[in-house]
Amino acid sequence: MRSSILASTLALSLLAAGTAGAAGSAASAPGAAPAQAAAAPGGYSGPSTVPVSTVRQLLDSGRDDQQVRLQGRIVSHDGGENYTFADDTGRIRVEIEPQHFPAGRTLGAEQRVELHGEFEKSLRTTEVEVERLIVLN
User: Fold this and answer.
1) Which residue in 132, 130, 125 sits closest to 59, CA to CA?
2) Cα→Cα distances 58→52, 106, 115, Å
3) What is the Cα–Cα distance from 7 to 10, expressed in whole angstroms?
4) What would the pLDDT profile of 84-99 be if each residue is shown by its tens digit?
5) pLDDT of 31 over the 60 cut
């Protein structure tokens, strides 16, 4: 009985691994587009109840996990998904995943943008995790 349970468990493990391997190989096949690139652009474009904040307001009185909107410029790429955002009141680190940038468009440091995201505040880190990036001009 114990050996049949062990054999069944092993068979299920091998079946699951084979299914996961097949799915992974299809996604990573040469010429295959990543799942993120295949996603159609879209989302909500109407008004927001989240008020526009300034960097100074966030740094002075922002709360951890607070939803935010910022308007200004991305002034530097600091490696990986880390950037520096600036407005007329200051600078803050922002984390922007590649899929949040507009497809087929390169942004420069002079480009005005609006960032929607979540303010992350801890003892060691103060940043905005960007969930949406809108080009303003």
Assistant:
1) 125
2) 10, 27, 13
3) 5
4) 999 999 999 999 999 9
5) no
DSSP string, 28-61: TSTTPPPHHHHSPP----S--SSPEE-HHHHHHH
Query: Do the bridges between strand 82-87 and strand 90-95 make them parallel or antiparallel, or are there none, so unpaired?
Result: antiparallel
CA-CA distance, 102 to 92, in Å (whole number)? Answer: 21
Residues 95, 74: Cα–Cα separation, whole Å:
11
Summarised one tens digit per residue, pLDDT across range 99-128 is: 999 999 999 999 999 999 999 999 888 999
Model pTM?
Answer: 0.66
The count of other CB atoms within 10 Å of the CB of residue 29 is: 8
pLDDT exceeds 70 at position 44: no
Tokens of 37: 């690139």
Between CA 124 and CA 52 the distance in angstroms is 25
Question: What stretches of 1-137 adopt beta strand conformation (E)?
Answer: 52-53, 66-77, 82-87, 90-95, 112-121, 126-135
Could you identify the residue written with the tokens 């929607």?
A: 116
